[in-house]
C-alpha cells in the first residue's frame, strides 16, 4: 500500500519555572479522540490554510529563518509558526503575541478573549484576523525550535510535526480550555515520565522522548538557550516487537517502550 502523506502540524512545549524546577504543560487527550485518545501530549494540532496568511502582524525571526531551522519551505514555515501560536491559544488559553512596541500581551482570560478563542476553534476567525482586531503582532521570538517528528509510513494517520518550546508569558495563565482534553497539568518532566513508568500516564514516543530531553534543563532559560543544531533533524521511528514488549526504535538506536494499555 502507498503510505499516507503526512499532514503538517505544530506542537508547543509550554514551559515555566515551578517549585521543583522546570515544568511543562501537559494535556491528556480524551479517550474518544480518533488519534492518540487517552494519551498525554502538548498543545498542538494541524495547520490551517489561513496560517500562511502573509498579512499577519509579525515580529521576531522571519519565516525564512524558521524554514532554515526546520528544513522546509518558507510558506510551510510561516504556517507552522502561526499554527503553533494559534493552537497554544486554542488549547491552553495562552497567546504568544504582543504590541508592535515589543510588550507581550499580559492577560487573555476575559470574556471578550474567550469569544475570540471560540471563534478560532470554529474557524470563523483566523489568527491574522484576531491579531489585527487587537492591534497585536505574532511574537515568533518567544518560540524556539525543539524537535521534528514524522509518523512512520506504516501508520494510516501520519503527521509531520515540528515541536517548538516557549516560556509561559508573564501575566498569563495556562487554562484547561481544550475540548479535546480531560486533564491539564503542570508537571516536571521527571514526574511525568515516572507516571508513564507506572502506567498511569500513557504517551506517544515523541512526547516520551522530548520529556526526556527536557530533564537535562534546570530552568526555562536554560531550556530555551539549549535549542538543537539547525536544521533540526527529523525523527521517524520504526517499530520492533520483542518478548518483553513493543518498542519504537529511533534512527540513533534509542529504544522507547510503547505506551502500556490504558486501564480499563
TrEMBL record:
**Keywords on this record?**
Hydrolase, Magnesium, Manganese, Metal-binding
Q: Which PROSITE patterns match?
A: NUDIX
Residue ranges of every copy of the Nudix hydrolase domain listed in the record:
6-209
Q: Which cofactor does it need?
A: Mg(2+); Mn(2+)
Recorded superkingdom: Bacteria
Cite the InterPro entries for this sequence: NUDIX_hydrolase-like_dom_sf, NUDIX_hydrolase_dom, NUDT19
Q: Which Gene3D superfamilies match?
A: Nucleoside Triphosphate Pyrophosphohydrolase
Kindly list the GO molecular function terms attached to this UniProt entry.
hydrolase activity, acting on acid anhydrides, in phosphorus-containing anhydrides; metal ion binding
Protein name, entry field: NUDIX hydrolase
Source organism: Blastococcus saxobsidens (strain DD2)
Amino acid at each position: 500500500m502507498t503510505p499516507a502523506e503526512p499532514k503538517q502540524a505544530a506542537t508547543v512545549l509550554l514551559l515555566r519555572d515551578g517549585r521543583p524546577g522546570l515544568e511543562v504543560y501537559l494535556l491528556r487527550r480524551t479517550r474518544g479522540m480518533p488519534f492518540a485518545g487517552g494519551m498525554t501530549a502538548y498543545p498542538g494540532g494541524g495547520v490551517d490554510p489561513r496560517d500562511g496568511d502573509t498579512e499577519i502582524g509579525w515580529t521576531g525571526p522571519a519565516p525564512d529563518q524558521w524554514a532554515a531551522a526546520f528544513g522546509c519551505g518558507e510558506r510551510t514555515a510561516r504556517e507552522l509558526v502561526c499554527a503553533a501560536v494559534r493552537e497554544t491559544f486554542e488549547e491552553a488559553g495562552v497567546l504568544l503575541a504582543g504590541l508592535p512596541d515589543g510588550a507581550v500581551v499580559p492577560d487573555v482570560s476575559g470574556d471578550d478573549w474567550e469569544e475570540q478563542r471560540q471563534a478560532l476553534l470554529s474557524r470563523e476567525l483566523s489568527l491574522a484576523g484576531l491579531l489585527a482586531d487587537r492591534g497585536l503582532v505574532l511574537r515568533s521570538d518567544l518560540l524556539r525550535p525543539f524537535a521534528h517528528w514524522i509518523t512512520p509510513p506504516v501508520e494510516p494517520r501520519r503527521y509531520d510535526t515540528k515541536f517548538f518550546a516557549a516560556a509561559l508569558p508573564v501575566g498569563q495563565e495556562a487554562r484547561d480550555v481544550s475540548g479535546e482534553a480531560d486533564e491539564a497539568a503542570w508537571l516536571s518532566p521527571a514526574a511525568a515520565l515516572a507516571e508513564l513508568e507506572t502506567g498511569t500516564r500513557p504517551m506517544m514516543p515523541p512526547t516520551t522522548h522530548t520529556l526526556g530531553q527536557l530533564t537535562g534543563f534546570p530552568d526555562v532559560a536554560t531550556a530555551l538557550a539549549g535549542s538543537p543544531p539547525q536544521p533540526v533533524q527529523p525523527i521517524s521511528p520504526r517499530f520492533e516487537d520483542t518478548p518483553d514488549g513493543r518498542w519504537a526504535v529511533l534512527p540513533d538506536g534509542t529504544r522507547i517502550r510503547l505506551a502500556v494499555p490504558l486501564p480499563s
